[in-house]
Amino acid sequence: MNLKSIYQEVILDHNRKPRNYGTLDNANHHAVGHNPLCGDRIDLALHVEGEHIDHIAFHGESCAICKASASMMTATVKGKSRSEAETLITEFREMVVGNLDLSGPHHLGRLAVFAGVRDLPTRVKCAILPWHTLQAALNSNAIVSTETAEDSIHAANSKA
């Protein structure tokens, strides 16, 4: 089985049966992420106790890549510390724009299946949106968009 078919299977599985999909009643961190170019919208809620993400849930309307990314992200960061989540956010973002060498050290584990997104430039923002939203929620920013200056910089660097 090649990497492309594994990627497709993972996306389809997490799109059909997203993990941590729904609302979270006791959330103490929340953010809404939006990709105005394609219409993806993710509503992310977290319950952070001390420095650890105890509970996390998401819902919204999005494409299969965005929903699968959100599903795998929530499953991965649940139980992690803020600093571990921040590391994963950075590494995931760098991976999908082609700036992370997966043969070197990283913490992505199964998330590395999204590495192929870098070859689909129109889908990169779909995969990154949940991660931007997580970072916004952790930093108490209520709304985030994929259309930021930082994304433009990442996109320019990955094309250079």
Automatic annotation (TrEMBL):
Any GO BP: iron-sulfur cluster assembly
GO molecular function, one term: iron ion binding
Residue span, NIF system FeS cluster assembly NifU N-terminal domain: 7-126
Pfam families: NifU_N
InterPro entries linked: NIF_FeS_clus_asmbl_NifU_N (IPR002871)
NCBIfam families in UniProt: SUF_scaf_2
Family according to the record: Belongs to the NifU family.
Protein name per the record: Nitrogen fixation protein NifU
Native source organism of the sequence: Nitrosomonas communis
Organism taxonomic ancestry: Bacteria, Pseudomonadati, Pseudomonadota, Betaproteobacteria, Nitrosomonadales
